[in-house]
Amino acid sequence: MYKVMLVDDDYPVLELLTKTIDWKSLGFEVMSTHDNGLSALEKAAESMPDVLISDIGMPKMNGIELTRKLKSMNGSLQVALLSCHTEFNYAREALKLQVSDYLVKDTFELEELYELLQKFKIQLDTMQNNKQKEQKLQHILHKNIEKEKTAFIKRLINNGYYKKEAEWESDRKKFGLIADKGYIVTLLSIHDHPLDLFPEETLYFAVSNIVGELLERLNPLAVHFLNHSNRVFIFFPRDLGYQMNALSNAKETLKMIQLSIDKGLNMHSSSIIGETSESLFDYQNTVNRLLNNRQQLFYMLPRTVSSLKESVKNTEELFAKYDEAATEMRMIVLNKKVEQISNFIHKWTIYIMENEFPPEVVKDWFWKLLLDLNVKLQALQYFSGEYCFESKHQEIFLMEYMYQLKDWLKHYFEKIIHYHETNDQTKRKEIIEAFKFVAINLERKITLDEISSYLFLNPSYFSRLFKKEVGETFVEYVTRMKINRAKELLEQTDESVGKICERLGYDNQSYFIKLFKTYAGTTPIEYRSGKVS
């Protein structure tokens, strides 16, 4: 439906036009009526009509002036003016404004107005169709340009592509990179990449449109290239030609782009500023360093802008802390201390972020924590096979940012404790307490009399109860748990076999080695060397 605005200070005329014409059947609707031009202008500022039918002689603002102002706001506005015989000067003025028709109030018939409205409808339909065709062509052109720009950035990433200087010069000119100007190369990274909500191509062009529109307004000489829908290279000119620091301008522009992406697409992003580039080698080097700098990207928070820095390969120190973290985590889960989860995760993520360990190492470290916890809880009979754990592996390794991994871990540990609490309800309280006692006191000597006393039970009764519920004796269970712990210490620490034996509450090293071989099928030394090799 096209919108019609009626303006006349003669109320009967307004009523006649409103009620006697079947606007809907003609494809129109009356959006508003006014008795003076000023009121109509104010309304049009809020919602522009497609058709204006107005008297000429009115108070506050006449129809000619109203038409002039509305035409300046909407060049495709269709206008019909109403007047009396004596206002021929106004009629001549109306012709200059390309008014579609001039109707004399005293003589025109409704059929004339019907014919005029049908003509308006045809003209508006034609303009709308042409506009849609133009938009479609513009969209196709824009898509082609963006795809060419993406192909260009991929050629830059491929260091061996440009064999001849002429090929590089041709591409440089084609995409608006001015020779000898020098550009600050930056990388914008989209953190959330919801391909389940948006197709890749839709997201690609949505991001490109936001970036392109802001650059046109804030820094028209800057050029952007999408590598993927979640990676955008933006080249900012080093010499802006006016009194503003180019680096400051790049930072502020990147912040504005990040804010717009957050508001427009509800997605977080961050940016890294690389080095100024002039030659082909400079561009290739900076683009590849930015793209491959996953370690710096991993630790970036939403809406932050940082300068490019080299990654440090530091791995040993993190795994030296593994046993401490694993023990702490195990105690929190076993004791169901939900309130301690946030502090635990905060403590270790702060340590990791301060040292900026490689992302793959961090993910391996956390995955090993969860894997070991899962094995222990299954051994303690807290988990059954129905709890899906393996799917978590992919979730962890798909995390691109540390803050996302932190949130995921908090949620996961809370879920583990909830599952633990639910599963507790299916077992006898005495057995659950025995499991927890062993887990907490594993690194010392544990006897049947001690656990029986702890549970206020007769040792013989507890022994029979444990065997019935668990399927092995209490002594066998404790031994199996200690051997599993010994395996962990052999894998994760440099402690001697004697030290591990003493740590687990065994007085006789020979007996410990014999026991280890019975359960593990190999001696502690062989087990450690086998793991190392």
TrEMBL record:
PROSITE patterns linked to this entry: HTH_ARAC_FAMILY_1, HTH_ARAC_FAMILY_2, RESPONSE_REGULATORY
One Pfam family named in its UniProt record: HTH_18
Domain spans labelled Response regulatory: 3-120
A single MF term (Gene Ontology): sequence-specific DNA binding
HTH araC/xylS-type domain boundaries: 432-530
GO biological process: phosphorelay signal transduction system
Signal peptide limits: none
Domain of life (superkingdom): Bacteria
Alphabetic keyword roster: Coiled coil, DNA-binding, Phosphoprotein, Transcription, Transcription regulation
Classification via InterPro entries: CheY-like_superfamily, Homeodomain-like_sf, HTH_AraC, HTH_AraC-typ_CS, Sig_transdc_resp-reg_receiver, Tscrpt_reg_AraC-type_HTH
Parts forming coiled coils: 110-137
Sites bearing 4-aspartylphosphate, chain numbering: 55
Matches recorded under PANTHER family: ARAC-FAMILY TRANSCRIPTIONAL REGULATOR, HTH-TYPE TRANSCRIPTIONAL ACTIVATOR RHAS
Protein name: Uncharacterized protein
Species per Swiss-Prot/TrEMBL record: Niallia circulans
